[in-house]
């Protein structure tokens, strides 16, 4: 699994002009899955996400986790994180998991985030064309891949 974590002041997701979820200060998490992923990767990614110290303490150092600051989380499924752009000009998405594999893994990731202690987790609609509003704070953007954890 791959995730792009963006520390935000606020974020929102809408489909067809309707806001489905919004958060205040916290993380917008773009998550993609591949064919080899399982619940093990979803849980490892959730643990790393919840505990990664990317929020500032009173001295301005990135020393606090999402759990420490009570951060909200907005999770957006993003198959394009597995785009292969090595050949030609059109990305290949062959490494991205098919929807019947990816959707349950994204849902498992969301449950695992809650189990880690992230109290408010909202998400978009799997497979929908979404508009995602991201007010990046810092900006702080972190890339995680379970192959590297």
Report on this model:
This protein has helices spanning 39-51, 66-69, 99-116; strands at residues 2-15, 18-23, 26-32, 55-56, 62-64, 72-77, 121-123, 131-145. The protein has 149 residues and is α/β, with parallel strands linked by helices. It has a single domain (2-148), classed as D-tyrosyl-tRNA(Tyr) deacylase (D-tyrosyl-trna(Tyr) Deacylase, Chain: A). The strands form two sheets. Strands 1, 2, 3, 6, 7 and 8 form a six-stranded mixed sheet that branches. Strands 4-5 form a two-stranded antiparallel ribbon. Helix 1 packs across helix 3 (99-116). The model has no long low-confidence stretch (mean pLDDT 97).
The gist of it:
This protein is 23% helix and 38% strand. The protein is α/β, with parallel strands linked by helices and 149 residues long.
Query: Which residues form runs of ≥5 with pLDDT under 50?
Result: none
Q: Briefly, what CATH class?
A: Alpha Beta
CATH architecture: 3-Layer(bba) Sandwich
Oligomer: single chain
| CATH homology superfamily | D-tyrosyl-tRNA(Tyr) deacylase
| Cα radius of gyration in angstroms | 15 Å
Structural class: alpha/beta
Intertermini distance = 10 Å
Q: What is the helix content?
A: 10-25%
What is the molecular shape? globular
Number of helices: 3
